Amino acid sequence: xxxxxxxxxxxxxxxxxxxxxxxxxxxxxxxxxxxxxxxxxxxxxxxxxxxxxxxxxxxxxxxxxxxxxxxxxxxxxxxxxxxxxxxxxxxxxxxxxxxxxxxxxxxxxxxxxxxxxxxxxxxxxxxxxxxxxxxxxxxxxxxxxxx
Length: 147
Description:
The protein is an all-alpha fold and 147 residues long. The chain has one domain. 73% of the residues lie in helices and 0% in strands. It is built from five helices and no strands. It has helices at residues 21-44, 48-72, 79-91, 94-106, 110-141. Helix 2 packs antiparallel against helix 3 (79-91). The longest helix is centred in the C-terminal third of the chain and has 32 residues, at 110-141. It is globular, with a radius of gyration of 20 Å. The model has no long low-confidence stretch (mean pLDDT 91).
């Protein structure tokens, strides 16, 4: 059976390559560390406020990290998977953020759930921007920047 699309519109097939096991291992190791840190924050301060703080702090760190490894230093190729996707991806938790909102709604606090949902997204976006701008400002004050 032929394809419904002409040959020139079909995407070219890429040859199969070996899985990047070193990258997967870096993400897994970083994710384990970040998840343990997040769980520790939850044990110290359970509830939606803990999730909010973890997500905002994690997004601030992501902003700093992305500026540093893209504009300041020539980072090893596993730094972003380990720190960005692994540690900070494991530390921040948008699945718990949604679960917290559901619990607020089920507890009869739907308005608070909406404020929590919108406020978290806004605060996290602002935190990423603050991380980038703050790191850029510090780098500029130190006379560094753009590799």
